[in-house]
Amino acid sequence: MSKSSLQQLVDAGQSPWLDNIDRRLLKDGGLAKLIADGDITGVTSNPTIFNNAIGGSRIYDETIQPMALAGNDPESIFYQLAIEDIRQAADLFRPIYDQTNGADGYVSLEVSPKLARSTKKTVEEAKRLWKLLNRPNVMIKIPATLQGLPAITAVIAEGINVNVTLIFSIERYQAVAEAYIRGLEKRVKAKKPIDHIASCASFFVSRIDTKVDGQLRKIVEAGGSNSKLASELMGKAAVSTCKTVFGIFEETFASERFQKLAAKGGRIQRTLWASTSMKNPAYRDVLYVESLIGANTINTMPPGTVKAFKDHGQVGKGANEGKAEAAKVLADLPKAGIDMMEVSAQLEDEGVKSFIASYKELLKTIDKRSKEFRKSMGNLAVPVENAIKALKEKDFVARMENKDASLWTMDPAGQKEIGIRLGWLAAPAKGAAIIESIKPLLAECKEEGMSRILLLGMGGSSLGVETMSLILGTGEAGMELKILDMTNPDQVLAAAHWASLKKTLFFVGSKSGSTSESNAFMDYFWEKAQKTLGKKAGRHFIAITDPETSLSKVAEERGFRKVLLSDPEVGGRYSALTMFGLAPSVLMGQDTDKLLETALSMSELCSSSTPIERNPGIMLGAFIAAGVLKGKDKVTLITDPELAAFGPWVEQLIAESSGKNGKGIVPVDAEPKLDFYSTDRVFVYLRLNGKNERRAAKARRAGHPLLVLPWNSGYDLGGAFVQWEVATTAACCLMGVNPFDQPDVQESKVRTKQLTDAYLKDGKLNMGSPIWENEVAAIYGDHLNGIDSAKSLSDVLSVFLKQVQIGDYVGVNAYVPRNDRTMNEFTKFRSAITKKTVTPTTLGYGPRFQHSTGQLHKGGANNGLFIEITAEPSADAEIPGWKMPFSVLEAAQALGDFDTLQSRKRRVIRIHFKKPFGRGMLPEIK
Ligand SMILES: O=P(O)(O)OC[C@H]1O[C@](O)(CO)[C@@H](O)[C@@H]1O
């Protein structure tokens, strides 16, 4: 393939650089493509470029939002976002830098233009930026003002790469080269190495023609004696000046003085042609490229010029020819009445001023957006800022990375547990190996005719997967997945109906290996599989569990296809990005690399290598904690419909992590549309396409604190897992709660066991005595004042809901099939409850919620009222070897949890419907 004109430039010794940076170009792969295509070998930026990028899209909000909420000023926000872009770009150019041994592949960032007239401040700023950027292939841009010249020497002497900007005259160019050489000489004198220092001198081309042509035009128009000469000189000043500069450049760096430095590894300060887009349409659009080609030079071009040159640029002799003619033009210019010293002084002044204007404008944009973000906090702006400061003071992130359990508890047992519960921090980094190990399994299973997966597991062992399957769907070559996490017989039978045995791979997921629901499901499907598949049954089963659990032993005994080991240092609700989530994701044929990519970049942002003010996890955690500490303990999730499935995962994470010791965060998910909200809430809006923007905006307008978390695609899920995990642990730190245990879940399990043991002995469950009943339903619970006069279920609920106080929430815990129809019924029910009581509501299907929000119900603050709903099953299924059907297990679980809530003095009633649950059975709320 023949070389493109841009590649020919490289052969001629000139580096084509891009005079533009924009996060959109970094994110959408545009810059990477330009590099891969061999079009550009470096990048330059300036305040105007950043102003256009920041003003031109909302992509920088991801940096502005956390920084603003942490109380940063616009300038520090700007440098943070600039540093992020420059670093990312530098990393893309790093291979070029390495291949050329540091000759090329640079990205430049300019010191604040406001410092252009101060040597000292410029030097300080250059040092600060260099340190922050922490990349060998970046250059710090310093203006070639008179004050900038000594700064260049000082900064070069510090060993920092410098791109000298805003050069407009031959004399100033000479001074710049001198400043550079002096800097190197200073280092040599100080016996410091100079071989790694790179520099370039940026000469601004087109601006010279624009100004000189303007003046020439006036002379021509005046029609005096100079007008003919003036007319001939039009369009020649810039190129002629540059050709002369090029000659001086060649001489300077061929000089004996420089050769001494070159012998020590000193590099030529390359000449960089800047401002090379054509401003005058009457001239050839690539004139400032074609005319200035030369060895050891750079041409930095805006995107349009890169495109034009690639399309029709010609690589000839460029700067190497026509030097005599150039000299003549320069000699003629004063004769025609042009004072080039004056021109360059004006250009320098205008150049500095225009960069300052752009800089001010970009700061104004950042300021405006910062204020919007802070306004969205309602009356939490200061508490959120303080919460971030508190986490910073505690050095939360670094201490968490160092497994410092005292962040959450002083209790020795709790601390010991935390010591083995922080493995999730490293999960994204370990993900690739897990993914690779699972890939062959997909091919094998498909070859054996399996196209479906039924995942049997509770809480953390299934909620992450549920989220992935519903948000990301099944990939083209993947297997379809469904989850069974309910003991309701109808639900079990529906799963069995779907999971035709020959086609299905059963995935038993349980970290502890001892979760009764998962084991019951396994036993049920194992028996079925044995009957139908005989000896091949084991091929259809996989277990994911910790090493040495009872499940791993059973799996071995039964000859399961595989036992996938989970990371013992990661608790269930933090395990989405470990084997528990990644193995099913691979088998569903999802783009796991993409998922990991977003997880890894979020991990980096949430690590101690990022300033805490920029940490998205800390921002979210501080928001949640600030709310809780101000009595706004209900985190209401609003999601665009495509992200709705994220809610149940968040519910478990925050409720089970925080809901203990009488404290807790109440997640409010999938709430019906409401006109009015109580003031004990904060809102988080997961925004993908803005479909629910109005709903979120309504909450904000009513003064409720709202944090908007934008997603670019479903694959931001990987990052969201990490962000919410960090947020939860940070919030728990501020609340003084250990986020890694679930001390109150056990009691319901124990009570359930007592009930099933009694059933095995007596053949029936002890359901207790109702406090009210009619032909449709029976009500269980403590006596309620006023219940005796209740004539209907509606009356009973009215009596029950009379107990609601400000700050409460109502939890509906339903042991009925989980499907669209029942969901619909509960949505209406929740809506009616809130309309009556103004209280937020939650919905959990039993027993799945017991492994999620159940911890909060029992261990959190006593501000929940619970309506438990049970119903007669419409069918049943025996659990092999358990001597009981699923209906009994489900009922015992409902009763066990109910008893536990009662023992914790929670306000709770149980409505038991005497026939299977269906439409219109839930009472009206009066
Ligand atoms: O993976 P396992 O051990 O079956 O546990 C399932 C779920 O049950 C809980 O332990 C609560 O009972 C959750 O924390 C956990 O995610």
Give a quick account of the main beta sheet: strands, pairing sense, barrel closure: 7 strands, parallel
What is the count of structural domains? Answer: 4
- With helices defined by DSSP (H or I, 4 residues minimum), what is the helix count? 36
Enumerate the spans where pLDDT stays under 50 for 5 or more consecutive residues.
none
User: In one word, what is the shape?
Assistant: elongated
Order of strands in the sheet with most strands: 1-7-6-5-4-3-2
Bin the strand percentage: 5-15%
Which CATH top level class of the largest domain fits? Answer: Alpha Beta
At the fold tier of CATH, the topology name of the largest domain is TIM Barrel
CATH superfamily of the largest domain: Aldolase class I
Average pLDDT, to the nearest integer?
A: 97
Number of strands: 24
The percentage helix is 40-55%
Give a brief rundown of this model.
The chain is of the alpha/beta class. It is built from 36 helices and 24 strands.
Lay out the secondary structure.
Blueprint: H1 5-11, E1 14-18, H2 23-27, H3 30-36, H4 47-56, H5 61-69, H6 74-99, E2 107-110, H7 119-133, E3 138-143, H8 148-157, E4 162-167, H9 170-189, E5 199-204, H10 206-222, H11 227-233, H12 237-254, H13 256-263, E6 270-274, H14 287-290, E7 297-301, H15 303-312, H16 323-335, H17 340-375, H18 381-393, H19 396-401, H20 412-419, H21 427-447, E8 452-457, H22 463-472, E9 480-484, H23 489-498, E10 504-509, H24 516-533, E11 541-545, H25 550-557, E12 562-565, H26 579-587, H27 592-605, H28 616-629, E13 634-639, H29 646-658, E14 666-668, E15 681-687, H30 693-701, E16 706-710, H31 717-735, H32 745-762, E17 772-773, E18 777-781, H33 793-801, E19 809-815, H34 820-837, E20 841-845, H35 854-859, E21 864-871, E22 878-879, E23 884-885, H36 886-903, E24 907-913
Parallel strand pairs: 1-7, 2-3, 3-4, 4-5, 5-6, 6-7, 8-9, 8-10, 10-11, 11-12, 13-14, 13-15, 15-16, 19-20, 19-21, 21-24
Antiparallel strand pairs: 17-18, 18-24, 22-23
This protein binds 6-O-phosphono-beta-D-fructofuranose.
6-O-phosphono-beta-D-fructofuranose binds at residues 458-461, 510-512, 515, 518, 572-573, 656, 742, 745, 851.
Subcellular location: Cytoplasm
Enzyme class: transferase
GO molecular function, one term: carbohydrate derivative binding
